[in-house]
Amino acid sequence: MPFLGEGFYFWEYNLDYAKVWGRINYEGKFFVCEAEIEVDHLLDGFYLDLAGNRKHLVFFVELLKEFNLIHDEGTKGIDLCYIIDYMRQNFPPDVFPFRVIRAVDYKNDDKAGIRIDFNAKKDVLSYTILNPRILIAYRSKEDIVYEVEPFITFVS
Amino acid sequence: MEALEKAKLALRKHLLENKQKVASDLEAMRKLSKGMDVFSYMDKLSDAFSFEAITTTKEVTYEYSFVDMDCYDLINAISQADLYSPPEILFNQKTKKDPEIASRSFFFNTIILC
Q1: What was the ipTM of the complex prediction?
Q2: Whole-angstrom distance, CA of residue A83 vs CA of residue A75
Q3: Which of residues 110-149 of A touch B (CB under 8 A)?
Q4: Is A37 an 8 Å CB contact of chain B?
């Protein structure tokens, strides 16, 4: 099961990682297709931004905490992809209406990333990362609105 | 009411009405799960920007035919695209005919004038 459940995925402005993904997951036999897409972020209940919208993040965590009502463990230990798919397929549509989800993908590796400190204070480790790896998942192809239709960017 | 608020209420209602079923489903999903749960994801979001992406691996080029490409609607889009055709050129049949001047005499006159 992929990151955010079954669906259609884009890497956001990240051709380099698309190539890596192809090499790792498709043994080098892949195409990278580039497209410009538009997400209707104003349509209520359509788009869930877990990468850049704190309101959405807080809401989503609160939503998952609701599961503790029926079990102490709640969603602890359950992968995100299963939870999202489960809510979509087994619950009423109002519970999880979101058709597009944006999230950050990461590897648990401290050495990874273009990481830069905010200031020179030695006692406070405060930094930012300049190359977030962001993915956008559409539940169905019909929801994708293309500004520019997909075209092949890279063959490898 | 916003969708976010509606979602929370709808979820609470559904959970309370289907407590046993959902609890057993959660347990099943817990067994399937291999990685981080969602709260670990949230906690570590600030570390979520990895960079192993850029590599110097040698690239190998494969030649695929168009039918092999798994691109959303790409082939249809190409085949349905309007082919460019030049605008129709209408020749005006009533154009006044230029006076017939023999090229030899024209150049001769020009040379004389110079």
Answers
A1: 0.80
A2: 8
A3: 110, 112-115, 129-133, 141, 144, 149
A4: no
